[in-house]
Design goal:
The chain is mainly alpha-helical. The chain contains 8 helices and 2 strands, in the order ααββαααααα. It has a two-stranded antiparallel sheet.
Length: 204
């Protein structure tokens, strides 16, 4: 794979809402970031607890991947940072939870949402959201969020079986579900681009 530095391409949000200038641009970007944060909070309420692990199945991963791809690197990462901060006081986390992110076992995953959204967004700015490579982009984002997620979860595991327990709590039960979510996100983006291009063609 050859990822060359190039002028960032417009992402989906830019195609739907063409860039404005000055204060109007700032307000537009702020609205997108807040909307993406609320979208993530909404999907976080889709929660399926698993009795053997403190980490539930949620819709957050899907939201992170879609937000990063649709908003691009900076706005996507900012939306996830806002989600992390807002969840300190508001019931934005899984199942309506809130609080300091590192007070919960799944807090590391929430921290991982920020670099995951940035990387998926950056790859979208290189055109990876418009063809088969979108699947690799979503996979990269999914892998990235697991790194801080598993590292923090390990602090909750028994010392004598720390990494075995961590994998059983935070990785193995979620592989199939995350694969479904990243495939769904990978299918959504090209379809959304097709729809946007179709509407554009009709307006010309």
């Amino acid at each position: 794979m050859n990822i060359r530095a190039q002028q960032p391409l417009p992402v989906l949000a830019d195609a739907v809402l063409p860039a404005s200038e000055g204060s109007r641009r700032f307000a537009q970007d702020a609205a997108l970031v807040v909307g993406a944060c609320l979208f993530t909070a909404l999907l976080a309420q889709v929660k399926i607890p698993l009795g053997f692990t403190p980490v539930p199945i949620t819709g957050q991963t899907f939201a992170v991947l879609v937000v990063g791809a649709a908003l691009g690197s900076r706005r996507g990462a900012t939306a996830m940072l806002l989600y992390l901060v807002a969840g300190t006081w508001l019931p934005f986390y899984a199942g309506g939870a809130s609080g300091f992110v590192f007070s919960i076992a799944s807090g590391g995953y929430i921290v991982g949402f920020i670099p995951a959204a940035f990387v998926v967004g950056w790859l979208s700015e290189q055109g990876w959201d418009r063809g088969p490579r979108v699947l690799l982009s979503m996979l990269a984002g999914n892998v990235i969020l697991y790194v801080p997620g598993l590292l923090w979860l390990a602090t909750f595991a028994p010392a004598e079986t720390r990494w075995t327990t961590t994998m059983e709590w935070g990785l193995y039960p979620f592989i199939i579900g995350d694969a479904i979510k990243l495939v769904a996100a990978s299918l959504l983006l090209p379809v959304a681009w097709e729809a946007v291009n179709l509407v554009r063609g009709r307006k010309q």
